[in-house]
Design brief:
Chain lengths: ~170, ~300, ~425
């Protein structure tokens, strides 16, 4: 199949990638860029494991053609934080025990992060709605909600919440 | 590794005219993609079957919600999220915004579009009953010209519309309703998120200037027939009557009697008929309380 | 060691890897020259395979090889308890459910493998499809395997059931049915395999729950010694019992040996639904006796567990369900029989609770119905019959410590703000 060239920004870096008309953004992220923190759970937009932030919006990368992401700005879980500098949401997930098998975690964290950006003080219903596109099958929803509340509290109570180094 | 002999192409033009030219050239051989939230599900594990794509993402004018004189024009690429947050939609077409907010999940609402929802023509499409209830018309363009059709004309069966291969749905046109218009939207499904509706109801009632007499009514349902439908008998019963003297149970019964849904994985015919009646009564009650709960005061 | 952790908040050891996306699940493993597999599955739930034609699919660019049963005559059946599952269904052999594998497609890309699947032609001789275990148990029902469709019958006896019902003032008899359930772990069945020609070792990175049983089963199926099978457990994206059974393992091993290249197989969600184990649907007929004062005297139970096309853990699940027929309540006189039955449904295996959850639906429903008939508050009724230290379970186990059911019931009632008959 003929290859087509696209250019997109992933986690702040410009990437030029050869792709095809039948490649999904999810495949491009995983198979070509090897950013395997983005997962495939259903391939049909139901589970949210493939969630990324695309042009400042949450998107299910299994429902986006790679070519549709030409010129787009993409953030995956790898762009949120790392071992040296965890994002407050990541930290809260660890501390509240919101992580079990971990397969939903990257998508869940991206959904949580996006929610808190748009609504820094969500109530429980708003949190549930914010993560309604992400399934957890270990059924750790309560702790995930606790984690998001914890992150929200920390982010609002201190400006230094971002980029804590003592992970 | 060469798997296909036809070179695959992907077009993302910036102008509608360009898109229409491409459509004219390729006709059935090209897939138009808007948000992709239905198409990529439909073509899961077989995207290789599509050789040519026409992506509408770069056509800016398709992404606008604007008021033009006495009507609202919604571009086909307007997303569900845009509908949900638009102040104009909230003001003039609140139940369209509510229906958009009930679609899928944040991920789906951010990508899925009103045009896609219409063209996909699922009997369960969440926006279809509200659009029909607000007397929506669709602007279909091709290089041969423009055609404007009503929602009733557009949908002809499950996943079937009158849209021709060379035509593009570009705009949804909604007449601005009077200030005395009230709406109620009810979606029934097994979950709150990411659920295909078992039944939907969009009820829009316009009161006369006395704020009591029903001037016009549109009772539209989804997931109960091959296409979204309007129950016209309700209109006959309601128009000209004083709203607080209506028999809600009787109107609910009319809705139950006039629909003939099927059994499917989301619900049985019996369930749908029963629920249709109950949600009609609930919708009438909601409108009742929204417009004054029986003691309508002039604004 | 317990002193270091009890009462303290301990972070999960791999939580940080999981929140940063660094944790490696099997599908996250890539090799440069890796091939992709797809499994061509049964075209009918109960049929003899008459013909399979892979010639067109093999000609598709990108397809490396298609393995059918004819290529692997030495390979034996596999299974957790009974070796009744074929690795690939051969000509003249039977497909018993829609998940049975007919061919392994090996290709340079996922896409080529998917495309090739559609080009494989299969012809079958159809048999009656048995989807109802009650039909499977009838004398004239066609046999799904060689022997009876009733794979196993287990009995349970405690005390004197006749005496128990004689002592009862009220007897309630009902039939309960539970449905098939998928575990839906967020990660589907997936793995990567490599064959090292020099050592003859097959290395598999697979999400699996029973590493060593799986290793032994793969070895016996392939006719290799266990040292030749090395299973590496990456991070698992949920299992809940579904990953106790073999899924991708044998197909990966065969494809790796055949091609001498790294191979990857990831099910689609739909495939996982069709092919991999489920929770057993049960038919439970339960008769329970109670005195006017609200003391349970007898429980008689018949359990029919639909294990689908293959045994998997079925025998253990169904009879374990039966052993729990009284729930956490004292009943001196118990009699039970449990049938594990083959059908053409997707096979059923382990799932959280292992048969006890199905049974809970029956005995707790009986408790509610009985309490209603007795006019006793259902909480009170449960409390006066609940296990204590010293109670004996239906299979004769004397409980000597850690019996917390009464506290649990009280606490649950407390949280639910339970007041005389209503929350």
């Amino acid at each position: 199949m003929n290859k087509l060239n696209i250019e997109l920004t992933v986690n702040g870096k410009k990437r030029k990638v050869e792709t095809t008309t039948s490649t999904r953004l999810l495949d491009l992220i995983r198979d070509d860029l090897h950013l395997t923190g983005t997962k495939e759970g259903c391939g049909k937009g139901e589970c949210g494991a493939c969630t990324v932030i695309m042009n400042s919006e949450l998107a299910a990368s299994c429902l986006v053609l790679a070519l549709q992401a030409d010129g787009a700005d993409i953030t995956t879980i790898e762009g949120i934080g790392n071992d040296k500098c965890l994002d407050p949401v990541q930290k809260a997930f660890i501390e509240t025990g919101a992580v079990q098998c971990g397969f939903c975690t990257p998508g869940m964290i991206l959904a949580a992060k996006k929610l808190l950006e748009e609504n820094p003080h969500p109530d429980e219903e708003e949190i549930k709605r914010g993560i309604s596109g992400n399934l957890c099958r270990c059924t750790g929803y309560q702790k995930i909600i606790d984690a998001i509340k914890l992150a929200a509290n920390r982010l609002s109570s201190s400006d230094s919440g971002r980029g804590e180094k003592d992970a | 590794m060469q798997q296909r002999t036809i070179p695959c192409q992907y077009f993302a033009p910036q102008k509608i005219e360009e898109a229409l030219g491409i459509l004219f050239r390729y006709g059935n051989e090209i897939k138009v993609i808007a948000g992709g939230t239905d198409l990529l599900v439909q073509y899961y594990d077989r995207l290789y079957e599509i050789n040519h794509w026409l992506d509408l993402k770069n056509i800016k004018e398709l992404k606008d919600i604007r008021i033009n004189k006495n009507q609202m024009e919604i571009g086909a690429m307007v997303t569900h999220t845009q509908l949900e947050v638009s102040e104009d939609i909230k003001k003039y077409f609140p139940i369209l915004g509510q229906a958009a907010a009930d679609i899928g999940s944040p991920q789906i609402r951010n990508r899925g579009t009103v045009g896609g929802n219409i063209v996909n023509a699922s009997p369960a499409g969440d926006l279809l009953a509200p659009l029909m209830a607000y007397d929506a018309q669709f602007r279909l363009l091709s290089i041969q010209g423009e055609k404007i059709v009503t929602a009733e004309e557009f949908f002809i069966g499950p996943k079937k519309t009158i849209l021709e291969p060379a035509q593009l749905l570009t705009q949804i046109i909604l007449p601005l309703p009077s200030e005395r218009t009230y709406g109620s939207w009810i979606k029934i499904g097994k979950r709150k998120a990411l659920i295909i509706a078992t039944i939907t109801l969009a009820l829009v009632v316009e009161m006369a200037e006395d704020h009591k007499t029903v001037k016009d009514v549109r009772t539209c349902l989804g997931s109960v027939a091959p296409t979204p439908i309007e129950i016209k008998e309700v209109k006959k019963k309601m128009v000209g009557k004083n709203f607080n003297q209506l028999d809600f149970a009787e109107l609910g019964q009319i809705v139950e009697d006039k629909i003939s849904p099927i059994d499917d994985i989301r619900g049985t015919r019996e369930y749908r008929k029963d629920v249709a009646k109950k949600i009609m009564i609930k919708a009438l009650e909601e409108i009742d309380s929204a417009c004054g709960g029986g003691s309508y005061i002039n604004e | 060691m317990p002193k270091r952790y009890v009462g303290k908040n301990i972070y999960k050891v791999d939580a940080q890897d999981k929140v940063t996306g660094k944790a490696i699940y099997p599908d996250d493993i890539y090799f440069d020259d890796m091939l992709y597999l797809k499994i061509k599955r049964a075209t009918h739930p109960h049929a003899y395979l008459r013909r399979i034609d892979t010639s067109k699919a093999e000609k598709l660019p990108g397809v490396v090889k298609i393995i059918t049963a004819a290529d692997i005559p030495q390979v034996k059946n596999f299974g957790l308890i009974i070796k009744d599952q074929p690795v690939l269904v051969g000509i003249g052999q039977k497909m018993r459910y829609m998940g049975d594998a007919l061919a392994i497609v090996i290709a340079e890309s996922k896409e080529a493998a998917s495309q090739a699947m559609g080009l494989i032609k299969v012809e079958v001789d159809k048999l009656e499809v048995i989807s109802d275990p009650l039909r499977a148990m009838e004398k004239d029902a066609p046999l799904i395997h060689q022997d009876s469709n009733i794979l196993a019958t287990h009995y349970l006896k405690k005390g004197d059931i006749e005496k128990g019902f004689t002592q009862a003032d009220i007897i309630v008899e009902n039939e309960y049915r539970t449905s098939t359930l998928d575990h839906v772990p967020l990660q589907v069945e997936t793995g990567v395999g490599i064959y090292d020609e020099e050592s003859g070792v097959i290395k598999l990175w697979v999400a699996t729950q029973w590493l060593h049983d799986t290793q032994a089963d793969i070895a016996q199926s392939l006719g290799l010694s266990k040292e030749k099978i090395r299973i590496i457990q990456p991070v698992i994206g949920g299992a809940f019992g579904k990953k106790e059974d073999i899924s991708v393992h044998l197909h990966l091993a065969l494809a790796a040996m055949e091609t001498k290249r790294p191979v990857k197989l990831t099910y689609t969600r739909e495939e996982s639904m069709i092919a991999q184990s489920k929770r057993h649907p049960f038919i439970i007929r339960m008769k329970t006796g109670v005195t006017n004062k609200g003391y349970l005297t007898a429980c008689q139970v018949e359990v029919i567990g639909d294990t689908g096309a293959y045994a998997s853990s079925g025998l253990a699940v169904v009879h374990k369900g039966m052993y729990h027929c009284t729930g956490p309540y004292n009943i001196d006189n118990v009699r039970g029989v449990a049938y594990t039955v083959y059908t053409n449904n997707t096979y059923c295996g382990a799932m959280r609770g292992f048969g006890t959850t199905q049974m809970a639906f029956a005995y707790e429903s009986q408790m509610d119905i009985l309490s209603c008939k007795l006019g006793i508050d259902p909480i009170q009724f449960r409390l006066q019959n609940a296990y204590d230290i010293g109670s004996t379970t239906p299979n004769g186990q004397r409980l000597t410590y850690s019996v917390g059911v009464k506290e649990t019931i009280k606490e649950a009632a407390n949280i639910a703000a339970w007041k005389e008959g209503r929350p």
